[in-house]
Amino acid sequence: MNRLVAALAAAVLLAGCSFQNRNEREAERITRAVMANDLRPVQDDVAPGVTITRVQVAQWSDELNSQGKLLSIKETTVNCAPGWHCFDTKFQKHTYVEHMRLDEKGKVVNWNFHMEQQ
């Protein structure tokens, strides 16, 4: 009985993750890596030649961590320029807008964020 309950719980958790599309999963991986002040988990997702300094990552980490827990990341097309992927990123304190641009190989060539205006 306990194994059945554990298996059902695992299936529900996995199903919850499947509601994100590929771009949302990538944006979340980058956001969480920035919040952890460590881009190593996503370094292979970034296109060669893109330079991000440790100072930039530390500043971004401080800003995002000050917003509380990351609640959700959802892709949106509202006010999103062609060639970009845009996301509504909700934290406990504020909502941010993230922008991500990919090259032809699916590698990240640009990622940025800003707090949504109230």
Overall geometry comes to: globular
Distance between the termini: 49 Å
Question: How many helical stretches?
Answer: 3
In total, how many beta strands? 4
Explain what the structure shows.
The structure is a single chain. With 118 residues, the protein is of the alpha+beta class. It contains 3 helices and 4 strands. A hairpin with a 5-residue loop joins β3 (95-102) and β4. The longest helix has 16 residues, at 2-17.
Salient structural properties:
118 residues; four-stranded antiparallel β-sheet
Can you summarize this structure?
This protein has 118 residues and is an alpha+beta fold.
Helices and strands, with pairings:
Blueprint: H1 2-17, H2 22-35, H3 54-65, E1 70-76, E2 85-91, E3 95-102, E4 108-115
Antiparallel strand pairs: 1-2, 2-3, 3-4
